[in-house]
Each structure stands twice: as C-alpha cells, then as structure tokens.
Design a protein that fits this description.
The protein is mainly alpha-helical and 98 residues long. The protein has one domain (15-94). 77% of the residues lie in helices and 0% in strands. It has three helices and no strands. The chain has helices spanning 15-24, 27-45, 49-94.
Length: 98
C-alpha cells in the first residue's frame, strides 16, 4: 500500500474491551489498555496509520493481559480460600466431639 494513500477502514480501538478489562479484571493493566485504545482514533485522524495500528494492537494485547492477570488472581484466591477452609474444617470438627 502506498504511504500517501489512506486505508479505508481504521483499526479497531478496543476501548470497550479495555474498559471492561479494567473494571472486571486488573486495574493497572486495564488502564494501560485504555491509554492505547484512546490513541488509535487520534493517530488515525492525524494520518499516522502505522501508529494507529500499533496502538490498536497494544490496546488488544494489554486488555488480554489484564484479563489474564484477573483470572490468575481469582484462581489464586479460590485456592487460598479452599486451603484455609480445609484447615478450619479439620480443627473445628474434632473439638466438638462429646
């Protein structure tokens, strides 16, 4: 494609994904995704088509990183709660024998 010819369709900005990942998964990584998502349309409008595509790719990547971090945190939390629950069950049941 010629550098002076504007592509017809701008890349997706993934802003909705970034916001959902920020609210539901992992705040720090989600914010990074929102920053990149916000850059896509402004770079596109300025004629920086390559920069817009890179920002789009980065927004998507960081949204997935946020989702993965949130998922890992949730799994670790459930494992810890399960281990603590088993520990309390073991000490709690034996102390009430009559």
């Amino acid at each position: 494609m010629n550098d002076q010819q504007q592509p017809q369709i701008p890349p997706p900005n993934y802003l909705v994904w970034a916001i959902i990942a920020t609210v539901l998964c992992c705040l720090p990584f989600g914010i990074v995704s929102i920053v990149f998502a916000a850059q896509v349309n402004s770079k596109w409008a300025a004629g920086d088509f390559t920069g817009a595509q890179i920002s789009s790719k980065n927004a998507k990547t960081w949204a997935w990183v946020s989702f993965g971090a949130g998922l890992l945190f949730a799994i670790a939390y459930l494992i810890i709660v399960f281990i603590i629950g088993i520990g309390f069950a073991d000490i709690g049941l034996d102390s009430f024998d009559v």
